[in-house]
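Forum: Protein Structure Q&A
Topic: Joint prediction for protein chains with partners

I've read a bunch of threads here and the consensus seems to be that you should model interacting components together rather than docking separate models afterwards. I'd like to see that in practice. Below is the full input, 393 residues plus whatever partners are listed. Could one of the regulars post the assembled result?
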Amino acid sequence: MNEIIYLIYILTFIAGSVAGLLFSYRQHGEPFVRSNINVPLLLMAILGWVLVVNTSLNRLHLFDTSIGFFLIAFVLGMRPGYGRYETVIGILFSIAIYTIKHLLL
Amino acid sequence: MNLMAIIIINVLISFLFGSILLGFHRKIMARIQLRPGPPIIQYFLHSLKFFFKETAFPKTASMPFYLSIVCILCGIWIAAIIIGPVLKGSLLLLFAIYAVYKIVEHNAGSSSGSPYGKMSCVRAVFSASSELPLFAVIAIIYLQVGSMNISDIINYQSIHGPLILKLPLVAIVLFVLILSKSPYSPFGITKGKDIISGYETEHFGLMRGYIMLSDSISWYMLSWMFLTIFFGNLSVLSYVVGMLVIAFLTGLINATTPILNPNHSVMSQISMALIGLLGSLLLMFFVF
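Posted by a regular:
Agreed with the consensus. Here's the joint model:
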């Protein structure tokens, strides 16, 4: 049964990557040159990473982890360069929340 | 769950995750070479693309052979998934599958009639003479564990700790085997760019799609085998991290190392296999 859940995670990750790639090609005709942060994408990255890291992979929360994988992949899978800073901030934010929730409280 | 359903799901997982890993490998190589590189989903998209492209057949191809060899290539790696992650069967069967894979590589090159394919076909025989000794170090695992069954190896490690601490040289040798299977490997003489794409050169459309599918499954399978043999029963998260680390390390090595010529490749792999075999025996009998 677990295998089906992992398959769903992989499929949502792939769907997110494809959606992110198509979206970024529609938004940006030019290669990555700017270094400013896109706020909606930043929110998506933070939400995605927080959902995946904090709902914890081994407890198999199917719905929220799948959404998390989709959002992570959407930002990560954009044209090379785009989404890079948003992803790093998302990872740091989710680690901070995990640390506060599991180690400090 | 039905065994057939488990097999299909495992094959799908290995194809999808294997292609993500190969995409990640390509990304790592690009970043080391100061290129942006394609998105990590690119390998998967390429595989899909070939399934929908027109399939052309070279006039020089030996048709029944040319078609069937690709099906066999796919079949043997699916069999590896059944023996490995699904049934946790014998390592000896995986060794046999790898031996058949080298024969398939040889025949895929010769069946197309292309001079590049034929050159790759000759090189496949060379590489078999070096990669099979690399895989043969699993004999040391048998001496240590007393069984070739993957489930027994996992049980052994749950009692005695990970095998990588007891047999580090065997782990290095099997890592070299994985390295030689990775794209742009210094030991990848059968697909060296001096012979275009080696045995894949004359495989187009659907044929190439099946070859890429097999490559994804084989990459996942070899990474899974390495992690299971040397680290025991890991959680899914540990498998994911371990496979990403293997892809990272092989990408790092491949991006910074030129492809060796066939003689150097074969001799260095045989030397590593010998050092691994003899060194592990010495370690087993005099240190542990």
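Residues 163 and 230 of chain B are 5 Å apart (CA to CA).
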